[in-house]
Amino acid sequence: MSSHANPEPTHSLSKTQDQALAWFARLQDSKASQRDRAEFAAWLAVSPAHQAAYDKIAQFWQSPALNAALSQCAEIPLPQRSRKLPRQRWAAAACVVVASGWLLLASGLIDRWQADAVTATGEQRRIMLADGSAATLNTDTALAFNYGAERRGVKILSGEVYFEVQPDKARPFIVETEQGTVRVVGTRFSVKTGDAIQVDVESGIVACAGRQGGSRQLTAGQHTRIFSQGVDAVTEIDAGRAFAWLNGRLIFQDQPLAEVIAELDRYHPGAIVITDAALAKTRVTGNYKLEDTAAIVRTLADITGARVINLSSYLTVLKG
Questions:
Q1: Which residues pair with 192 in a beta bridge?
Q2: I want to staple 101 with a disulfide (CB 3.0 to 4.6 A). Which of 52, 66, 82, 87 is the partner?
Q3: Half-sphere exposure of 37 (CA within 13 A, CB side)
Q4: pLDDT of the chain along its 320 residues, tens only?
């Protein structure tokens, strides 16, 4: 397990995000031609990822998060959506503002500003909380504390945390996430953010609840996912695999390569992309130390017959 003081990870926009930003700014100009729009449509049709990237940027332009992001880093005034501002200046301002704000959001810096404890990519860190409980932050995680006279707990802004909670029946320990909450008295468990919140319990009992209703109770060796609308069915876990990261390892059993790479990518300083659908479905088994993620990628490529293409320090492609 590694721990670094004052981590300063390098953040950058992906190629797709960069292209989407350029298209967004280009289409704000009233002089955008039919040819421009035809080329934009062709770009969207290349990959579903293009549409997703553009939609996120368009939504971000309308969101309060943009104002919040920019107010934290620089005094860049938002352009007023008014006819009084010349169209060309508006388009240029839109490009600068959205690019700045989107970089902050995509790189996780907004979460880090709100956090009391963070880890960089590939870093793991164990901290002691005010009540004697402990929290181990996995790679690229942001955690905020929420303690008071009558409450104890934390909010996971992003990432994954393993908790060792000291018993206190008078003050249950509450983990807050965007989709819901996890409530315990004394136990050991992990919570991982994402499209759904994943909860794995090593010992004790935890109660999981969605923001909009629904709840489940988990005991040792069980797993569930929390959505805003409710909580998924409870399933059994292999504790050795579920908590392997605490020992600096990645263990997977007969899983699609795409799932393994998605998990490995969380620890890797850059993006790992699989370009072949058949390769992505290839099932693999392994037990690796997380010390050298690039070496794991090469090993998985050898096993599956894939070719590794390093396009840059931050982009690795696996091709069948």
A1: 160, 198
A2: 66
A3: 7
A4: 444 333 333 334 456 766 776 777 667 655 677 887 888 888 888 877 788 877 776 666 555 554 554 444 444 344 444 444 444 444 444 444 455 444 445 545 555 667 899 998 899 999 999 999 999 999 989 999 999 888 899 999 999 999 999 999 899 999 999 899 999 988 999 999 988 999 999 999 999 999 999 999 999 999 999 998 999 999 999 999 999 999 999 999 999 999 999 999 899 987 888 888 899 999 999 999 999 999 999 999 999 999 998 877 777 889 88
Fold of 248-319: Phage tail protein beta-alpha-beta fold (3.55.50)
Q: What's the pTM? A: 0.69
Of 130, 266, 281, 133, the residue nearest 204 (C-alpha): 133
CA distance 138 to 121: 9
Picking from 95, 101, 19, 96, the residue whose alpha carbon sits closest to that of residue 54 is: 19
Domain ranges of the chain: 15-111, 115-241, 248-319
Residue 34 token pair: 């039919």
* 115-241: CATH number: 2.60.120.1440
